[in-house]
Amino acid sequence: MEIAKKFKNIDVVKGDDKKQLGLVSAISVGIGLVVATSVLVSLAQGVGIAGKGFVIAMVIACILNMLTAFSFSELNSLMPVTGGLAQYTLPAFGPLVGMVAVLGGYVICTFFAGSSEAAMIGIVFTSTFMPSVNPSIVSIVFVLILMIANLFEVKNYARIQIVTTSAMIISMMLFGIIGAMGIGTGEMVVQETVAFNPMGMGVLSLVSLAFWLFVGIEYVTPLSKELKDPDKTVPLGMILGLIIVLVVQVAMVYGIYKYVPMGALLDSSLPHMLYASSLLGKVGTYWMAAISIFAVVSTLNTILGSVSRMIYGMAKDGMLPKIFTKTNKYDIPYVAVVLIGVVFIITLSTGISTAEQLVLYILTGAVFWMVAYIVAHLDVLVLRKKYPNHKRGFQIKLFGLPQIIGILGMIYMIVNVSPDPEMKVQILKSVGVWFVILTVYGVIWIKKVMKKNLFETVSIEEVLEMDKSN
């Protein structure tokens, strides 16, 4: 098999002492963002709506994200740069498209969704272990610890990621196995419907919900310069990460279905905690609280480590202020790391991260995330035409079908981003507003600061050279 050859001798590394991270780190980084607290909630809600049939939507969503992983892997092998999508897009469409896609789908989405995740660690921790403590204080302490850890050697980032991700995934798998086998201490329930897929074809409307269970696996790519043998480690890390997440979450689906009535899952604001208490009582509550905390720590650690490098890479290519190119003695883009941490702390201090309006901002950023994936697929197709003979360490052609199917899948999910028509209109209006704001910023910055045309492309060699420069 051609794919198998690409992954042969994955553990063989030659030379470069700066390559500090291996396959386990790559998998941990990918899973670290994919499995967030909101994912645990969405998973349980999906079971509440479709029962075991939610697995169908999950498999489809996982496949779509694997197609995205293929595109990001090929782009990374063409241009192993720190800025990710923004830099990949320069040779294909010029600066404007990449700036809007990355600032919307990653930076803005990160600021709001990341702040919400940070707020959750305080809420879960205090409600379970220390009810008399202010949740915001706990959240801020966690953010500060992670921000400081990310200012030192990249190994610290990897150590935190491996520990938290391993504990989280093993615990989730045990929760799934205990529930699926029916060996919990709680009582199993009899659902009103015993059909595997009571929604029939209607389950396809839940692919958008299932998408959130796998999104973010490409956060591995900004770390490619620190990874051993990145042409193999990046794609293998992403694909294995998605498979691991799918297997664990399918086990959770069967466990949740056996122990919690579907209606109760929909009525609960924390359905994953309801499952934990129904399965193992007080022990389950404490255990799931720990999983939730690990999920938040892992997510925030991934954001601080990867998004900071995206900002750094964009600044090196002139798409953001040069101050973000500053690095410390550990070669960490400390200005970007501190910026992200400060934004989290400000939102936690002001309370905006718990406001109802924040849900709209998160979903708006998520639509931009889908748009970013569409741009990645288009980049691959365009660059294959422009640079057919350029060396690629990873490529799965298949006549461009992975990219075409991926684009159509993203469009479908954008159109079906919310089953509530009123909420859908709100989201799309918000996307329009953010699109205008980012486009205006991009046009002004490109024309006045970069002094380039909006769609002026550069060669792959120029992108690589800019990324090397300090």
From TrEMBL:
<dbReference type="GO" id="GO:0005886">
    <property type="term" value="C:plasma membrane"/>
</dbReference>
<feature type="transmembrane region" description="Helical">
    <location>
        <begin position="49"/>
        <end position="72"/>
    </location>
</feature>
<dbReference type="InterPro" id="IPR050367">
    <property type="entry name" value="APC_superfamily"/>
</dbReference>
<keyword id="KW-0812">Transmembrane</keyword>
<feature type="transmembrane region" description="Helical">
    <location>
        <begin position="236"/>
        <end position="257"/>
    </location>
</feature>
<feature type="transmembrane region" description="Helical">
    <location>
        <begin position="93"/>
        <end position="113"/>
    </location>
</feature>
<feature type="transmembrane region" description="Helical">
    <location>
        <begin position="164"/>
        <end position="183"/>
    </location>
</feature>
<dbReference type="InterPro" id="IPR002293">
    <property type="entry name" value="AA/rel_permease1"/>
</dbReference>
<feature type="transmembrane region" description="Helical">
    <location>
        <begin position="195"/>
        <end position="215"/>
    </location>
</feature>
<feature type="transmembrane region" description="Helical">
    <location>
        <begin position="332"/>
        <end position="352"/>
    </location>
</feature>
<keyword id="KW-1133">Transmembrane helix</keyword>
<feature type="transmembrane region" description="Helical">
    <location>
        <begin position="133"/>
        <end position="152"/>
    </location>
</feature>
<keyword id="KW-1003">Cell membrane</keyword>
<feature type="transmembrane region" description="Helical">
    <location>
        <begin position="21"/>
        <end position="43"/>
    </location>
</feature>
<dbReference type="GO" id="GO:0022857">
    <property type="term" value="F:transmembrane transporter activity"/>
</dbReference>
<protein>
    <submittedName>
        <fullName>Amino acid permease</fullName>
    </submittedName>
</protein>
<feature type="transmembrane region" description="Helical">
    <location>
        <begin position="427"/>
        <end position="446"/>
    </location>
</feature>
<keyword id="KW-0472">Membrane</keyword>
<feature type="transmembrane region" description="Helical">
    <location>
        <begin position="394"/>
        <end position="415"/>
    </location>
</feature>
<dbReference type="Pfam" id="PF13520">
    <property type="entry name" value="AA_permease_2"/>
</dbReference>
<feature type="transmembrane region" description="Helical">
    <location>
        <begin position="286"/>
        <end position="312"/>
    </location>
</feature>
<feature type="transmembrane region" description="Helical">
    <location>
        <begin position="358"/>
        <end position="382"/>
    </location>
</feature>
